[in-house]
Amino acid sequence: MKIIITGASGYVGASIFMNLKKHYEVIGTFHKNKLFEDLLELDVTDKNAVIQTFLTLRSKINNPTASCGVL
Question: How many domains does the chain have?
Fold first, then answer.
């Protein structure tokens, strides 16, 4: 099973990434700060990039920990 953790370089995402990586095939993404060497760069505000990434990786589970909003 592949698990994608979006925002794996954030506080919550990094913890989830490291814990799940012990037992599963985990793919993590980052936008600006590459906390771990094996993270993939992904801007979650870019719809086409997100679709392409998910289609490429064919993930079965997604845990969205990245947040985006309008101030």
Answer: 1
